[in-house]
Automatic annotation (TrEMBL), chains A, B:
UniProt name for this protein: Aminoacyl-transfer RNA synthetases class-II family profile domain-containing protein
Protein family: Belongs to the class-II aminoacyl-tRNA synthetase family. Type 1 subfamily.
Aminoacyl-transfer RNA synthetases class-II family profile domain location: 174-615
Organism: Tuber magnatum (white Piedmont truffle)
Alphabetic keyword roster: Aminoacyl-tRNA synthetase, ATP-binding, Ligase, Nucleotide-binding, Protein biosynthesis
Length: 631, 631
C-alpha cells in the first residue's frame, strides 16, 4: 500500500514524496544462511543491493548483503533477467532494480540458483556456489539523491552513521567490545561476583579530577555530581556483606581532553572483601589471559611481570614502560660524574642503537635532527643529545647547558652508558627532585625517541603484548595546583585518599609521608596504563588519621567523609579492588591508538558530539528552573 | 603485626586506637564448602561470628557465617573449648572470642569435627553434621561499640549498608537482579543482538519529561543533558547498519518522584531493523517466558494476551489493567439512561461483589465507607457509590450530583450492570471527553476499590502473573501544561514524536490527528506497566511532516532534529524496538510494590541519597567555573 500525500513540504527542497508503508514480507533467511541446500528454493531476504551492472536492457548483475552479527556474510551474487514470459512482478522488480538508489533498504524475494559456470578461468576459482534471481523487490525507504559514496570515501565525525556503516574496523571494534563485555561478565559471575549498579547522580567530593555538576530544581546551588568512579559505593558494598562486586560502570571526568580521554568512559569495576592486593592481581591476570585466549586467540601468561614504581621510573623514566622495548634503559651517571654527584646533582642518560638493517650513522643523524626539532630544549628543560663519535659531543654538552666538559668525563659517561661503537644516539639530562608523577623528563624523551625510531623503521616494531604490574607507588605526591586537592598538606594522594599504605610504612606516615608506599597496582600493557587498583583503608581510625592529620583536611571537607567513616567502623572487612579502563582495553585489543575508535558515539577533542550537536546552549528560562543564571 | 600509635585523635571521641594490619591467612574454604569430607582437617575461613554463648569459662558456643553468593550458606556451629594442655594460640583465640564484637570481620583457623550427638531429641533432628573448633582468630577490624542490632532492628535509609547486611529480601533482590541481567544478555546475544553503549552526556531535546542539565566549562549556558532514553542514538544505530541492538541503559528523569519513580533508572533497551511491532512483541514474549522459567521457575505463556487501548479504557478505565482481576468490568449506561445519552452525556459504572467467605453486606458496607473516605467526591469529580438493596440508593445518586433519579432508571441501571443480588457495591460516574491518558476517573476508583477489597480480604488476592500487551494507543494526546511539549498544536505525542502511525491512519494525520492510532505497544504485568515500544518512523518525509505540519513545531526546535532527518534520509531501514523498565521488572518478579526495594542505593522521595548526602550545596566558586551563579 502506498499512501500518496498532497506534497506541501519536503526534505531539502525536494517535493516529490509519498510515504511507503511497512507492509513487507518477513525474511525467511539471512544472507549468511544461503547455500547449496537452498538451490531451487524461494527465499525472502532483508538488506541492501550493491552497485547494479547493466549487461543490457534485460540482464542486470548486482550483489546483496545484510549486516548480521556476529559474522557479517559475504555479499551474494544477484542476477535479474527478464524475457517476454516473465511474470509482471518480476518485470516490475527488474525495473525497480534498474533505478534503485544503492543504499535503499529492501525486502527481496528471490530464487536460489546454482551459479552458472564462469567462462573466465580466474572467476571460476571464486567459491560462489549459488546466486539469487530476483523475483520481487520491496523498497523500504527513499534515499537522499545526494548520498553518494565509494569504498574510499572518508566521512567526518558529523556523519557517524555513515562511518559506522562503511568502516570495517569500527564495526569490528563494536563487536569485539560486546563480546569482551560478555566474556568479562561470564568470568566474574563464574567467580561469584555480583553485578551491582551504583548511582550516577552522586555527590560532589574532593576526590581527584574535576566532576560534572547536575543542578537540581531545589535551587540554592544544590547539585548532584556525576561520579568519577563508583569508589565510595563499592566500599560501602563491602561493608554491606557483599563479598564480591563488579560492574561495567559509566564514569565521568570534566577535564581537558587528551588524545586518549573522553568526558565519559566505561570501566570494569571490581572489589573483593577479605582480599589482598595479590588476590586482585591474580584474578585480573586470569581474566586478561582468558580474554586474550578466547577473543584474540593469543596465548599469554601464565603470570605477568611485576615491578615497583621506583624501578620503572629509574630504568625507563615512566610508570608505564612498554616492556616490548625494554632495553635502552636509563642509567645514572652518578659514578661517572663524581664532581656533579658531590654537588648533589643527578645526571641520567640512555643510548639508542637501532636494530634494523636500515640503521647507520646517516639515518641516526636524521632521526636525531627530527627528534630534536620535535622536542626542543627550553630554559631549565635543556638536554644533551648527540651521535657518539660524530665529533659534535662538545657542542652538544654546551648547548645542553652542561658546560662541565672534559675528555675524562666523556669517556666515563660513555663507559657508564655502555657506548661501545660509534653511531649510537646518546641522550643525557639532569633530574631534579625524587621520583613523582607518571614520567621524568628524560623518560618522555626516551619514549618519544623510541616511537620516532619505530616510525622511521630504525627500531623493529612489535605486535606482541607485554604485560606489567607496577606496584609500590608512593602514597602521596607533591601537590599540584589541582583545585580538587583535598587538604592543606603540601602533598596529595597519588591516586585517592582511600588507598591503603603498605603496612610496614604506616609508622612513618607522620614523619616522612612522602616515603610511604601505597598498596596500589597499575596494569600496563604495551606502555598503556590499562587501569589500577589498590587495597583500601578498611579501618575508620586509619582513614580518619590520613584525612585529618596527614592530609590536613579542613573540618568542612572532612564532614563529607563522615558516612564512609561510619561504614568502615561498622565491621567492614579488609578489601581490595581494581578499575580497568574498558575503552582502553578494547583499543589495545584492536591495536588502536585512540579510544575514539572503539566507542560508538565518541566526543571530539572539544568534548562535543558533533553528530547530535551536544553540548548545546540552554535557554535562560531553563536555567532558571534550576535557580541558576549565567554569570 | 600491630602498629601502635600515639593516640592524638579518634573516632567519635574514643581515643584507644591501634591500626591492625592485613596480614592474615588466605581462606582455604568458604562456609558452604564445609562438610563431612573435611572432618579432622584444619581450615581457614573468612567471615563473621554470630552471638557467643558462654557455657562456663572454658567452653563457648557460637556460629560462623560468610555472605557468599549466589547461595549464602547456613551458619556453621562453632565450639571453643580450652583446658590446660591447649596451645597458647588456642587460649588466646578463646579469649578473643569471648570479648569479640559480634560484627568483627575475622579470619578463623579451625578444625572440623563431627558434631557431638545432642542430648535433647529435637536438637538431634538438626542436620548439622559438623562443627568448627576454634584454633586461632585474626580480628580484621575494630567495630564501633555503639553498633548493636538484633534480627528485629529496622534501619533507616541513612544506614543502607546495615539494611543491605540484614534485610534478606533486599539481598535476594540484588542477586535476582544480577541473574536476570545475565539472563537477558544471554538471550539477546543468542539472538544476535549487539550490545552498544550510547552516550550519557547528551543534548537537551523537546522529547518528553524534564531532563537534568550538565553545565560545561565552556560557559555561556552550554550544557549537556542526561538522556531520558537512548531513543535517538538507537535509531541512528539502525541507520548505521547494526541490525539488532540492546543495552541495559541508564536513564534519567527530573520530575516529581512518585512511589514508583527514581530520578535515575535502568531500562532494557532493544531495537531491531527490518522489524515490525509483532517481531518485537514476539521477541519480548520469548525473553519474559525464559526469565520466568529459568529464574522464577514459573511456566507462563506461550503467548500473551493483546488488547487495544480503547478496549482496556472502556472495560477497565485504565491502560494498564490487572488482568488477574478482570471481572468487575466497567459498563456503559448508554442504553439504560437514554435521556442522558440523548443529551450527549456518558455515564459508566461497575459493580463489585466479593469472592471470599468473609463477604457479606456488613463487610461490604464497611469497605464502601472506608473507600469513600479515602476517595472523596469533590466538585466536578463526584461519583455515585452505594450497596445495592441498602435503601440508600436515592441518597447516593443525589449526593453524587445525578439528581435524575426515578424507579425505572434504577432498574435499568442495575439491569445494565448485572446487579442480580443485594449486597453488591455499585459505583457510577460520568465521563467527559474521549479516552486519553492512563486512566479514567472511574478506572482509578475501580482500581482503588479492588485494592482495598484485597487488603480487607473480601477479594481473593492472587499471586500468579497476568501478562497483557496494550496496543493501538492514540498517536497524540491533548496537550497538558508540560513545558517540554514540543509544538504549537493543541496536542502532543502520546509517547514521543518518533512513534510511527498505523499505516491505514496516515491519511487522516492532518484532518483528524487525534484519531490516528500509533504502532505502539505497552507490556503490562499484573496491572504494572513494565515498558513500551513502537515501530519508529523511518522515513524522513513522514517524520518531518509530523514535526512540522502536525505538531506545528517552531523552526528553531525543528532544527534540533536535523541530524535525525538526515540519518533517516540516508537509507534507514524500517525498525521497531522497546524499552523495559528493568527496576520494575525486578520489583514485579520479587513481588515488591516499590522499585526502591530492588535498587542497591535508591534515592528517597525527595531525590536524595541520604546515606552519602547527595545532592549537596555546591560552592559559588565551583558554579563560577561553569559560568553560572545562583539567580
Amino acid at each position: 500500500m502506498k499512501c500518496d500525500f498532497p506534497p506541501p513540504f519536503g526534505i531539502k527542497g525536494t517535493y516529490n514524496l509519498q510515504f511507503t508503508t511497512v507492509e513487507f514480507p518477513a525474511a525467511t533467511h539471512r544472507v549468511a544462511d544461503i547455500g547449496k541446500e537452498l538451490i531451487d528454493k524461494q527465499v525472502v531476504l532483508h538488506g541492501y543491493f550493491g552497485t547494479v551492472r547493466k549487461a543490457g536492457k534485460f540482464l542486470y548483475f548486482s550483489s546483496f548483503h545484510d549486516y548480521y552479527y556476529p559474522n557479517p556474510a559475504r555479499p551474494l551474487k544477484v542476477v535479474s533477467y527478464i524475457d517476454t514470459p516473465s511474470p509482471q512482478t518480476t518485470k516490475t522488480a527488474h525495473q525497480t532494480l534498474g533505478s534503485l538508489h544503492q543504499f535503499t533498504p529492501v525486502a527481496l524475494r528471490a530464487s536460489v540458483y546454482k551459479c552458472a559456470p564462469s567462462k573466465s578461468p580466474e572467476k571460476r576459482k571464486s567459491d560462489d556456489e549459488v546466486e539469487l534471481r530476483v523475483k520481487e523487490i520491496f523498497p523500504l525507504n527513499s534515499v537522499s539523491e545526494n548520498l553518494i559514496y565509494t569504498p574510499k570515501t572518508v566521512f567526518p565525525l558529523e556523519k557517524r552513521h555513515l562511518q559506522l556503516r562503511t568502516t570495517k574496523a569500527l564495526c569490528e571494534a563494536l563487536r569485539l567490545r560486546s563480546r569482551t563485555a560478555s566474556e568479562c561478565r561470564k568470568f566474574l559471575e563464574g567467580n561469584d561476583f555480583l553485578e551491582v549498579e551504583t548511582p550516577l547522580l552522586f555527590k560532589s567530593t574532593p576526590e581527584g579530577a574535576r566532576e560534572f555538576l547536575v543542578p537540581t530544581r531545589k535551587g540554592n546551588g544544590t547539585c548532584y555530581a556525576l561520579p568519577q568512579s563508583p569508589q565510595q559505593y563499592k566500599q560501602i558494598l563491602m561493608a554491606s556483606g557483599i563479598p564480591r562486586y563488579y560492574q561495567l560502570a559509566k564514569c565521568f571526568r570534566d577535564e581537558d581532553l587528551r588524545a586518549d580521554r573522553q568526558p565519559e568512559f566505561t570501566q570494569l569495576d571490581i572489589e573483593m572483601s577479605f582480599a589482598t592486593s595479590n588476590d586482585v592481581m591474580d584474578l585480573v591476570e586470569q581474566l586478561i589471559i582468558r580474554i586474550w585466549d578466547n577473543i584474540l586467540g593469543v596465548r599469554i601468561g601464565p603470570r605477568f611481570q611485576r615491578a615497583p614504581y621506583w624501578w620503572t621510573m629509574k630504568n625507563y623514566g615512566t610508570d608505564k614502560p612498554d616492556m616490548r622495548y625494554s632495553n635502552h634503559r636509563i642509567k645514572s651517571l652518578h659514578e661517572a660524574l663524581p664532581h656533579l654527584a658531590k654537588a648533589g646533582r643527578s645526571i641520567e642518560g640512555f643510548i639508542f642503537y637501532g636494530n634494523t638493517p636500515n640503521y647507520n650513522t646517516d639515518q641516526a643523524t636524521e632521526l636525531l635532527e627530527e627528534f630534536k626539532r620535535e622536542n626542543p630544549s627550553a630554559g631549565g628543560d635543556n638536554y644533551v643529545a648527540y651521535i657518539a663519535g660524530s665529533g659534535k659531543e662538545t657542542q652538544a654538552y654546551i648547548e645542553g647547558g652542561m658546560e662541565l666538559w672534559h675528555e675524562v668525563d666523556l669517556a666515563n659517561i660513555h663507559g657508564a652508558l655502555w657506548v661501545h661503537r660509534p653511531g649510537a644516539i646518546v641522550v643525557i639530562k639532569e633530574r631534579h627532585g625524587y621520583y613523582s608523577g607518571g614520567n621524568t623528563k628524560l623518560g618522555l624523551l626516551r619514549t618519544a625517541l623510541l616511537n620516532k625510531a619505530v616510525e622511521k623503521r630504525l627500531l623493529r616494531g612489535r605486535s606482541d603484548y607485554a604485560f606489567l604490574w607496577v606496584v609500590d607507588f608512593p602514597l602521596f605526591s607533591p601537590t599540584t595546583d589541582d583545585p580538587s586537592q583535598p587538604g592543606r598538606a603540601p602533598f596529595s594522594p597519588t591516586h585517592h585518599p582511600f588507598t591503603a599504605p603498605i603496612a610496614e610504612d604506616i609508622h612513618i606516615l607522620r614523619s616522612t609521608p612522602h616515603r610511604v608506599r601505597a598498596e596500589h597496582y597499575d596494569l600496563v600493557i604495551n606502555g598503556i596504563e590499562l587501569g589500577g587498583g589498590s587495597r583500601r583503608i578498611h579501618e575508620a581510625a586509619l582513614q580518619k588519621y590520613i584525612l585529618e592529620k596527614v592530609l590536613k583536611m579542613p573540618q568542612e571537607k572532612l564532614q563529607q567523609f563522615d558516612h564512609l567513616l561510619e561504614v568502615l567502623d561498622s565491621g567492614c572487612p579488609p578489601h581490595a579492588g581494581i578499575a580497568l579502563g574498558f575503552d582502553r582495553l578494547i583499543a589495545v585489543m584492536m591495536g588502536r591508538d585512540s579510544i575514539r575508535d572503539v566507542i560508538a558515539f565518541p566526543k571530539n577533542t572539544k568534548g562535543a558530539d558533533v553528530m547530535v550537536g551536544s553540548p548545546s546552549v540552554v535557554l535562560d528560562k531553563e536555567l532558571q528552573t534550576y535557580g541558576l543564571r549565567r554569570s
